[in-house]
Design a protein that fits this description.
Shape: globular
Largest sheet: 5 strands, antiparallel
Radius of gyration: 13 Å
Strand order of the largest sheet: 4-3-2-1-5
Order of helices and strands: HHEEEEE
Distance between the termini: 17 Å
Amino acid sequence: MDHDNCRPPDINIPDPLPDYNAENNVGSWRQLFAANIGKRVKVEISLFDGTIRTLCGDIYLVGNAYIGLSCGDKLCFGDVYSIKYVTFY
């Protein structure tokens, strides 16, 4: 996936992103997501009030504490620490 052509012009995403194959990331959510950028997923996130929010889209990028999903013409970002369940398609 060519992120530069898909990136909305008003969102600044820092480069370069961390190396998720480094020893301290092995087996983490971040490594799992980074290895599957471009794959379709359903992510269930726990909100502060205890409810669960479901987001579906393609993994767009992975940051230190967040993931970004491409959901149609929008980018949705979620806190990696609030993820409860992920379904890969």
